[in-house]
Amino acid sequence: MRDRNSNGSPEDAGQAVGAPLDLNLLRTFLSVYRTGSFTAAARLLGLSQPTVTTQIRTLERQLDRELFERRARGVTPAPYADELAARVVEPLDSLAAVAGPAGSAEDAPAEPVHLAGPAELLSRCVLPGLAPLVDKGVRLRVTPGLTDPLLDDLRAGRHDLVIATFRPRGRTLTALALNDEEFVLVAAPTWARRIGTPEHLAATLHGVPLVAYAEDLPIVRRYWRHVFGRRLVRQPALTMPDLNGVKAAVAGGAGITVLPRYLCAGELASGALVLLHDPDDPPINTGFLVQRPGTSGNPHVALVRDHLLRAARDW
């Protein structure tokens, strides 16, 4: 028997196998590869977790290769698994697109598309533009949340698409650049008049109350470092884990904050908020549209993905 740590190619392994590989085993392998978890793959496939484990072990014996390294939380693909996934993903996804999920009837309605992302971006930019999809019969299940847990849920098969505030690491997910959001430093008109336009703005702002999304000032700290070139060491006067709430507090006169421009464009236009600084090089954050590799068995996932990529040009 050949050593499992051998660097043979997928073609070499295929030649060593006496019989064609079972498509069901390959489907199970691809689900584990995409989700990074036997449990999540079992949920997607409608199988028990022991069945998935048995199928992966059977495939490993047939290929004479270790496919996954078992971890405390989930599994990590072995190098050979990356090669195998690259070979089987397109034919398996093409077959699934023809047969439908689990061989369902051709006229069965498509499953809902599960979309997730930051609450503010969903409410302000995404949801208002989804009407054309709903009119086409697309059903949507939208979940707000923070990027890290949403990506975990995507790997586990709970979401189809996630709008992420950063590009995910690793090869188990694919990410396309979606939009750039510009961050702006704002305050209510009363505070803007008190602050004025001093030569050393960062020093002047030291005594002004800060309103933030979280205690560690994630967005504000980034603005200070990028624009003023200094580290911000301050405690916020008010925190709320909702940027719309932060915006409302600042518009009411609670202090200053940093917000994505798209979220406060209306208030800046009306004068409810005032731009305190307009640097030549404002901080920018790129959002990404993330999904598991390959083509989903639900054709509406591609519709939603392509719609979002087009719509994001106008956000």
Automatic annotation (TrEMBL):
Residues spanning the signal sequence: none
Domain of life: Bacteria
Entry-linked CDD domains: PBP2_LTTR_substrate (cd05466)
Gene3D superfamilies: 3.40.190.290, Winged helix-like DNA-binding domain superfamily/Winged helix DNA-binding domain (1.10.10.10)
UniProt keywords, alphabetically: DNA-binding, Transcription, Transcription regulation
Gene Ontology MF term list: DNA-binding transcription factor activity; transcription cis-regulatory region binding
All copies of domain HTH lysR-type, residue ranges: 21-78
Similarity comment: Belongs to the LysR transcriptional regulatory family.
Protein name: LysR family transcriptional regulator
Organism of provenance: Streptomyces pseudovenezuelae
